[in-house]
Amino acid sequence: MLAPQKELDGVLLVDKPTDHTSHDVVARLRGKLRMKRIGHAGTLDPMATGLLVILVGKSTRLSQYLVGIDKEYEGTMELGKTTNSQDADGEVMETRPVPELTEEGVRTVIQGFLGDQYQLPPMFSAIKIDGVPLYKTARKGGEVEREPRFIRVMSWDITGFALPRINFRLRCTKGTYVRTLAHDLGQKLGCGAHLAALRRTAAGPFKVTDALTMDQIQALSIPDIDRRLIPASAAVPSHVL
Question: Which residues contact 14 (CB under 8 A, 6 or more apart)?
Answer without folding.
Answer: 25, 29, 51, 52, 54, 211, 212, 213, 214, 217
